[in-house]
Amino acid sequence: MEIHEASLETPLEFGSQEEVILHCDYDLREDERGQLDIKWYFNDHVVPFLQWVPGGGRRPQLIEPTLFHGHIDLDFKVDEDEDKAYRSIRILEPTLEMSGNYYCKVSHFFLIV
């Protein structure tokens, strides 16, 4: 797996946008398909606020409690590839409390046979 830098197009001024889209871009080898776990973290929190395990038509899930409840569009898709469909997140009506650093962590499960 190759992970590219998670990115936001430009710095934002509070109140200047109704939504913010954050990208987590990665490439997969064929043998890694269907074995992913994508988590989003905010600032230095050790618990992610969102997790997505691709496959089986699953959507991302918020991990409670979180200040992002009601602010993440869980239906936001950026790709038709089942292993990349929800690799980006859309934050709706961001608040001042949501300003900070975001990062994604892309892992894959190892199958031992």
What is the element layout, followed by pairings?
Elements: E1 2-3, E2 19-22, E3 26-27, E4 36-42, E5 50-52, E6 61-62, E7 89-92, E8 102-108
Question: Descriptors for this entry?
Answer:
about 110 residues, mainly beta, four-stranded antiparallel β-sheet, two-stranded antiparallel ribbon, about 25% strand, globular
User: Over all CA atoms, what is the radius of gyration?
Assistant: 14 Å
Percent of residues in helices comes to: under 10%
Encode the helix/strand succession as letters.
EEEEEEEE
- What characterizes the major β-sheet? 4 strands, antiparallel
Average residue pLDDT: 85
Unreliably modeled segments: none
**Total count of strands:** 8
Number of distinct helices:
0
Name the shape in a single word: globular
With strands numbered from the N-terminus, the spatial order across the biggest sheet is: 6-5-4-8
Q: What is the terminal separation in angstroms?
A: 20 Å
Strand content: 25-35%
Counting helices, strands and paired strands, the structural category is mainly beta
